[in-house]
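User: quick one, sequence for these tokens?
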């Protein structure tokens, strides 16, 4: 019996090395297919949690490198034959540029999640819907023997590498101080994808932490622009027209306010999220207009 146990452990170790080699091969292709033989081998390795963990780490490392290469290629070279075009071609258009990067990451997450499920938990039911939370017991958090391995770690590791190049590019967009409308739409887009990707990947992961930090930075940029323009309006109040019509600066402020309200009403809301508090936005936009209008009223009807 002792010899049988030795042979069995040797077989498991050989199986583990074979699975690791197959996992390395998966890192060489963009859309790998998991063979039935590999799935069967992984099922067998679940009887040995330590060996299974080695294989899960191999998958994470290989797909981490492959995803990083794919993301940089999508940014700078585009698809085969130049189609689709490189994402950085649209760097002059902040909304499309950031939106294309977020869309690419979201699509890649769905693909990688499906791959990890098929490889490391082939008996699980794939749920790529927006309400899939972290990876529940019906998803990617499976009971592996006596030890439960959180497979969210695998996807967290896979997407860890794309965080920095994505963050650097979004920060460059924000540093250029886009218009008020563009800044507000950027903030809404980042918030939508922050919720959506957190539903799939888990809040406490590298990619989600990056997304939420960028959402906060974009909101700060938006309110900084509002504050600057509001202070400018108050410090340099416009002249009163002879016919008492609203000054151009006031009309422009009201026009921006109406467009912001329209954008807010039409913004996308993820299944797990809700529209952000709109009162601070209204106050930041409307208060300077009200204050300067009152000051102009005093100048006209109560001149010094």
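Assistant:
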């Amino acid at each position: 019996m002792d010899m049988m146990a030795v042979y069995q452990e040797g077989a498991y170790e050989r199986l583990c090395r074979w699975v690791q080699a197959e996992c390395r091969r998966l890192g060489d292709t963009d859309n790998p297919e998991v063979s039935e033989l590999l799935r069967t081998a992984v099922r067998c390795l679940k009887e040995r949690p330590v060996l299974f963990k080695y294989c899960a780490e191999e998958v994470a490392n290989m797909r981490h490198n492959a995803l990083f290469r794919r993301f940089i290629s999508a940014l700078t070279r585009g698809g085969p034959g130049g189609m689709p075009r490189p994402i950085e071609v649209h760097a002059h258009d902040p909304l499309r540029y950031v939106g294309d990067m977020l869309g690419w990451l979201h699509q890649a997450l769905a693909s990688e999640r499906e791959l990890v499920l098929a490889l490391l938990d082939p008996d699980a039911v794939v749920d790529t819907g927006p309400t899939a939370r972290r990876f529940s017991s019906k998803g990617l958090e499976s009971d592996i023997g006596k030890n439960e391995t959180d497979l969210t770690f695998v996807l967290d590791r896979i997407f860890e590498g794309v965080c920095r190049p994505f963050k650097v590019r979004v920060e460059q967009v924000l540093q250029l101080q886009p218009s008020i409308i563009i800044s507000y739409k950027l903030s809404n887009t980042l918030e939508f994808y922050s919720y959506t990707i957190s539903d799939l990947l888990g809040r406490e992961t590298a990619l989600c932490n990056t997304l939420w930090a960028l959402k906060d930075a974009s909101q700060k940029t938006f309110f900084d622009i509002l504050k600057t323009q509001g202070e400018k309006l108050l410090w340099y109040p416009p002249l009163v027209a002879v016919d008492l019509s609203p000054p151009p600066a006031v009309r422009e402020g009201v026009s921006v306010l109406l467009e912001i309200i329209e954008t807010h009403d039409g913004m996308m809301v993820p299944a797990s999220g809700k529209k952000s508090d709109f009162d601070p936005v209204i106050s930041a936009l409307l208060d300077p207009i009200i204050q300067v209008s009152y000051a102009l009223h005093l100048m006209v009807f109560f001149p010094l």
